[in-house]
């Protein structure tokens, strides 16, 4: 997935997370699961950006 596609996915997940948290509370299982999904996408974004700036052999 491209960096731009990851950015778009991150923004969409953030919006969904905020909406869920407002409706269900921060400790609802759905909110925790959405937060974990966002964390995974953020980690992938970080890996890709790092790979682009440092090269594939770092």
TrEMBL record:
SUPFAM superfamilies recorded: BAS1536-like
Pfam assignment, any one: SpoOE-like
PANTHER family assigned: ASPARTYL-PHOSPHATE PHOSPHATASE YISI
Protein name: Aspartyl-phosphate phosphatase Spo0E family protein
């Amino acid at each position: 997935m491209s960096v731009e596609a990851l950015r778009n996915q991150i923004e969409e997940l953030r919006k969904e997370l905020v909406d869920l948290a407002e409706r269900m509370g921060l400790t609802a299982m759905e909110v925790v699961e959405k937060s974990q999904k966002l964390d995974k996408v953020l980690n992938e974004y970080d890996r890709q950006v790092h790979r682009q700036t440092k090269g594939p052999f770092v």
